[in-house]
Amino acid sequence: MRKFLIGLVVLAALGVGGFYVLAGGYLGDLPGGGIVKTGPRPASVNLEHDTAQSVAAARIGERRAEQILFGDLHVHSTFSPDAFAGSLPLVQGEGAHPVSDACDFARYCSALDFWSITDHGIGMTPRKWSETKRVVRECNARAGDAANPDMVTYLGWEWTQIGTTRDNHYGHKNVILRDTDEDKVPSRPIAAKALPGSLPYGAEHGIAEWQRVFLSLAAPGGDRSAYFTAAAFAAELAERPICEEGKSVHELPDNCLETAPDPATLYKKLDEWGFPTLVIPHGTTWGFYTPAGVTLDKQLTAKQDHPGYQRMAEIFSGHGNSEVYRDWRAVEIDANGSETCPEPTEGYLPSCWRAGEIIKQRCLAANGGDEECDTRAAQARQFYVDAGVSGFRVVPGANAVDWLDSGQCTDCWLPSFNYRPGNSLQYALAITNFDDPENPRRFHWGFMASSDNHQSRAGTGYKEMGRRGMTESVSLSGLRTPFLPPVEEEPKARAFDPVNDTLQNFDLTETERQGSFFLTGGLIAVHAPGRDRDAIWNAMQDRAVYGTSGERILLWFDLINAGANGDKARGMGAAVTQDRNPVFRVSALGSFEQKPGCPDYATDALGAEEIARVCLGECYNPSDTRKRIERIEIIRVRPQISPDEDVAGLIEDPWKVVTCDPDMPADQGCSAEFEDLDYGAMNRPATYYARVVQEAQPTVNGGMLNCTRDDQGNCITVHQCSGNYKERDVDDDCLAPAAEKAWSSPIYLEPTGKHVLAAQ
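The chain above was modelled as a monomer; its predicted structure follows.
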């Protein structure tokens, strides 16, 4: 008996010890930032690029000192928790992609002129931040002449705020720093404070200890060491102390997790650091995490807006297009703030309404009476509204196909998933804050685009390929599928409370259906006088920027009769006070057709193995042939001059269309001059931007849900390409035609003496 008891004690000790070894991640090796493998591109590469651009610009009549440079300011490595989760064998991930991969990719795969790392602040630790800074400095050190580098690398992070209601949601913003020296950057990133029931809730402390042990022992597929590393990854997050609130950034220890609950607090902390910084809102209409009914109005206040930091907003990324406004809503909000489900309108089927229809069909199939089934449908609709972004969970057993195209902007071009029009950039241009009637406040954002890639691939979109690596089409539902039993269909909805339910993170949101909405990502372009860090930074500060859907379209958009005598030109992003009718000039050239494979200089630098692993075997490899610009659309927005003006009537999209001559050679581009003959008589502000439409080409996820529609245009069947991660063909790029686009930054006009601009 004594030996038996001793044996039990030993076994218990071993069990407890084993538990804490696994929970503590002691069997895993924490991933580092990696080592940059390459030096600068050959000087001839950038020279050839600049010369070709100058010749093309002169051919179209654009002769100026500034050159157009392309970059990506929204890039994640597997230091980000969601990116790390997507790298695991459990979801057929590729494995770790450190920050150094992003440097090599940007330099040789996508051949960018500049980029920034923006890993999630909520997932940062002192070790990761130190490693990130090291790699960014190393990437810059390998750029050649600092006055004329092959590429500029900026340091940044993502402030990932997600609210549980429309009143406490502010959304995601990338924080980009101008400098990289140790004494010119914050000691730690500033993360968003996660709220119970929101997507990143719990990320401050990582996953629970028992979950780490379960992941280490029970997760299926692949090398077990990957799961030991996952446990170490989670343990590192859990060991961070939370910074004390209310203290200055200079009083906090370097090793704590610092958070800001709202933009006002973020700006206050950035002010305390005092470093040159840009804050870029992004993914504003992405309903994956954005509560229904949210609008940008609450951010257009003296407290929550900071025009010195917020110079630009992201119009397009691998998470879709956030440009256009529509006057439908996912929920109805009454005067008391109560939310109910709206009825369908032409072109829009609310997901809450579809929830009711699914339950009604099931009820009738189970021989329920019409009155009972109608009651259940009404209950399901309200349950969906009450559950917020987790509304899909109120219909037990429903799959992606059951929801048809509900919640989507069906007449938008490559829109973000579960579109939130009140957070669109057109809505941002149209609204005004009248808290100070003598100085109405408006957003004055430049338009940019980037990738939001989570596998260290900065500048995706140069070729439409590699859906599994160039987009976010990774089934994160695989992280829960092996651990949770399947949910059976029921003819009655279930109430779901995401705040108090035990589910967290990706269990709270639709992961499979959104897989059809991930794209290869966009690019930011700047008009800059040089390639150096300050030239690019100053162009971004001046809003001399535009965004593309990934193609290197060349775009110029100018007000050509600015100044007291109408003899000056102001470029995109300018804010101008004038009374005369404005005259504009717009010019565009299509991007180059791509040759297969990689140029010799890239293969020589990276080697065949890294070309395959990092670049997926394909690089930016331009031919001498340009794609055709089909048309240029000019959008005019007249911002509110009284609080009761309806926003929908203020957005003219398009206001003017420039049809490009189809018989003109593509390398001649497309250009036009035009005047707004109504501006002077309107006596009110007006904002203008150009949207360039290039000829259609096969595009990853270009068909999105691929609906079959009836004669009335209603979606009756979806053929979702992504499907379930266990069933899909991982090599299928889901190509369908789409016309790639570019968006200029707006030009903001204001008549003299009235409606004074609150921000220049």
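The chain has a mean pLDDT of 90.
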